[in-house]
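Chain A, query sequence.
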Amino acid sequence: MAALPPINRRVRRIGGAALLLVGGAIAVRAGIAAREHRDPSAPPPPVATGYEADDHFPGAAQLLLDAPVRRGETGTAPLPALPANADAGDLGDASIRPARPFVLRGSQLDRARALRCLTTAVYYEAGNEPDAGQRAVAQVVLNRVRHPAFPATVCGVVFQGSNRPVCQFSFACDGAMARVPAPSVWLRSRRVAARALSGDVFAPVGLATHYHTYAVTPSWNRALVMTGVFGAHFFHRWKGWWGTPAAFTDRYIGMEPMPGPLRPLPPPPTLEAVPVPNVPLVPPTFVAPPTPVASATPVVEPKDTLPPESQVLDRWKDSGKPLR
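Chain A, predicted structure.
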């Protein structure tokens, strides 16, 4: 059998370059697959705040969390670590998935407080909006109650951060609640809140947990998924697993706090050890004061030396002693 002719250098160079390109493509694809389908038991990514951090500005994520919420937008909150059984590769889809009906459990006091707080949020956030805008705001509050990134009570969600200058809803910190509510608008907001707490679901807004008005553009605007526009607000949900129905796992169990802005607790008083003097039990010997000797010519102090707040009785006018 005749030997094969030798391969020239040009063919070898072309073949080597092709192998490098194929190998590079395989490595890149493997890296993407590893990132999208990482081990659920592995530690979470370093930044899990619901929006992307700026690589050119280290610490931007924390600064955004600490920034005061502007009028017309909701605040964001740090996301907890993914649970062990969460599928990190589940990025969700673009469809709008309605929330489950909210079941209000708890005592009669819990029901009254939840209704009061939800009515307050609807009134100050969307009081002059159409029915769809008010229902969407109420749905966002209840979606947050079920999400582990927020408190598990209605009043806790509505007034979250009001004990600091970083409210989740700006009306709880900017003095808007000092205005007396208009009775007709309050009753309309109360009806919307009562329906939502009785299981009414505003399906078009989906699992949105954030919103903002036309007038502002929050820092998290492009990092979340918009679910719709209702009234004067754009509504958004989180990207990835935290925006899927499986993430809304918190159960409402009542224990509603007092309606209204939270007040910071005063620091506990510092108790310092006070030394106790060794006082003898025997009372000291009483020494009578010396008897004053009457002067032949009594000296009377001028009246302008008396304290102005003193009033001298008639029998003491010549003594120079003010009445204390």
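The domain at 106-263 is CATH 1.10.10.2520 (Arc Repressor Mutant, subunit A). The beta strands are 210-213, 225-230, 233-237.
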